[in-house]
Amino acid sequence: IVAYAQVKQAAARANAEIGVLDAEIADLIDRACQDIIEGRLHDQFVVGVIQGGAGTSSNMNFNEVIANRALEIAGRPFGDYDYVSPNDHVNRSQSTNDTYPSAVKLGLVHATHKLIAEHEFLQYAFKRKGEEFKEVLKVGRTQLQDAVPMTLGQEFHGFATTSGEDIERFRDVLPLLLELNLGATAIGTGINAKPEYGPAVIRHLRAITGYSELVIARDLIEATSDTGVFMSLSSVMKRAAMKLSKISNDLRLLSSGPQAG
To answer: What are the backbone dihedrals phi and psi of residue 145, each rounded to the nearest 5 degrees, phi first?
Structure first.
């Protein structure tokens, strides 16, 4: 929800900049988007995440909420779409097919930054335990059998290293998520949007999100239909989850016999 509001806010600013949206209307839309970004009106987004239509229901939900909040700010009645229109003003220069995937990518970037921070905290904890346990002698296991000596600190240092590798993989996928197709509109041809809109909306979105690495995709037609980045992130998340599961199982095995639990 926050990410989609950021996209809509950037679009309003870009449309005003390039002269295709009245400055007063753009400011009302901007203020409505800021309300959503700050956590208000979230209960107004009632469309389910799973839906047909490639996200059109979500896009129109946003357009209508933003338009009506803008009207409320202006002191006008809800539904006065001649003054602020969900389609003609809030959705100007846009399509579901460029705003929806861009918002999803931004939302995933927000969440991945939080996930990286949690992994960094876990890695630090493993390193700290590695130091704490560096003198604790234990057996290593192969084929679930007691094998050769090692320290408990060495084992926890290994956990820290594998957690660090997952952090690197999450960071590798972030630049792919920061490549957006804004300005592509319906199918990637940019129909109904001026050529200046794409660079302008990305510039404003960088300022709104603080993500200076945001870029427009090189091929907007390819980017509008491509889902590769979502598979890439999914695979990194699955890798990290499976490794955390393995560490948990390793810790359970450490507590087990036959002689050296």
So the answer is: -105, 150
- As a dihedral over the C-alpha atoms of residue 190, residue 200, residue 13, residue 230, rounded to 10 degrees, the angle is 70
Q: Which two tokens stand for residue 109?
A: 């970037």
pTM for the structure as a whole = 0.91
Residue ranges with strand state E in the chain: 137-142, 145-151, 179-180, 215-216
Rg, C-alpha atoms of the chain: 24
pLDDT over 90 at 122, yes or no: yes
CB burial of residue 103 (10 Å; 0-12, 13-18, 19+): buried
Coil vs helix vs strand at 181: coil
Matching residue, tokens 């192969």: 142
Note whether 2 and 40 are within 8 A (CB).
no
Asked whether the beta carbons of 251 and 216 are under 8 A apart, the reply is no
Report the DSSP beta bridge partners of residue 215: 179
- Percent of the chain at pLDDT exceeding 90: 89
